[in-house]
Amino acid sequence: MTPAVTVVRTSTANLASVVTAFERFGCSVRTTADPDAVARSDRVVLPGVGAFAAARAAIDTRGLEDALRDRMLQGRSTLGICLGMQLMARGSEEAPGVTGLGLLDGEVESYGQGHPELRVPQMGWNLVSPSDGCRIVPRGFAYFANSYRLATITPGWHPVWSEYGGRFLAAVERGAVVACQFHPELSGTYGKALLSNWLEA
Predict the structure, then answer these.
(1) pLDDT tens digits, residue range 11-22?
(2) What is the pLDDT of residues 108-153, one digit of tens each?
(3) Of the listed 82, 109, 173, 180, which one is catalytic?
(4) Which residues, at least 6 apart from 66, have a Cβ–Cβ distance to it below 8 Å?
(5) Any catalytic annotation for residue 183?
(6) Which position among 107, 109, 183, 200 bears the catalytic label?
(7) What pLDDT, on a 0 to 100 scale, did the predictor assign at position 49?
(8) 107, 109, 173, 185: the active-site residue
(9) What is the SS3 assignment for 88?
(10) Residue 112 burial (CB < 10 Å; 0-12/13-18/19+)?
(11) Cα diameter, the chain
């Protein structure tokens, strides 16, 4: 059976590369901002590029918060990418006072804080190292493009680590719910392996 994937439209992401990545697997892909469709879908991708506050406002405006949070709390197949991962945290230093979905502990922080020598945003390939218990995110080099990162481990989630100005969370896993700070859709054969694992989970 052809896998069906729903990609959430938040108006803060270039959806073309995400859609194309899944179409290469023969998936039936649709994009939507309809919370009912997000709630009903077998597999959902929450992508994101851009500002935390703008993406959060789009989620609120479209009434997507409950649908996204509920499916992730229930362990239903969901993939957060880049800003999509950051939106799962309690909040972000980028947007003081704007709350995230609260599924991950801690606040997303700037790379530049305390590391003026770092090039920010981080753009390029970086080693990703999964911890014991990870089934979906493999070890290898992934493509990053981000100025903010999450470093707080959330109980019940399996962490995946990377290094840039210190250790930070490259990804987290909990069953079929996965969030990646990097872009698997832009990470060549490494990203293809990750997406294949997620589709099969």
Answers:
(1) 777 799 999 999
(2) 999 866 677 889 999 999 999 999 999 999 999 999 999 999 999 9
(3) 82
(4) 35
(5) yes
(6) 183
(7) 84
(8) 185
(9) coil
(10) middle
(11) 51
